[in-house]
Amino acid sequence: IRIITGDATPFPAAPKLAATESVRITADISSSQLNIGWDSPVPVGGARFAIDLPPGSDAGQPQLESSAGNMQIRSHREGNTLRVLILSMAGRSIPAGLQSVLTIPLSNASGTSIKEYELASADGAVLEAELNHASAAIPREFTLEQNYPNPFNAGTVIRFATPEAGDYTLTIFDITGRRVWSTAGRTEAGWIDIAWDGRSANGGQVASGIYLYRVTTPMHSMTKKMTLVK
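Above: the chain sequence. Below: its structure as tokens.
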């Protein structure tokens, strides 16, 4: 357990036995949580995941769904990587079929991704598995996150998520409503990060203070505040 969660150095391992069955892993991301499940032709006896979290995101305690209620869970965070292990010391397993298995509460879910995964059958053989990237990459709803860092002095990143492809405009206003800077483009569904260096449209450095940033798409518009401190 300590090895998989990144807490200890592994001993040299014997070659793993690969099972022929293929498991399809799904990862559904909303604005506040990550849900992981899979569709497996055989019972699953264990699983491990390494999940990349966006900077500044807090992760709550991972929780097993009822389909995995007879299993145990271990988790360990290392920087922006959350490692999760699902296991049973009593030889139990998660039933075959389509199962919702794991929920992880997140303060900032956009930009979260699964970078490593591995599943084993009830008899210990490693299962061939694939991640459904579409469900892991496309958000369910439009979200505008708080810029990071905030307050800032040299530059900041504004992140938003859109569930559909289309045009977008990011506009920054000062507290009086005067437009300071803007950018526009077209994106596929997913997460978009835009950096702002604290300069106006004419290239001059703007003054310290509170600014508003607004992202507009054909279907959505959302505004938040940020603070520039010199």
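Residues 214 and 223 are 4 Å apart (CA to CA).
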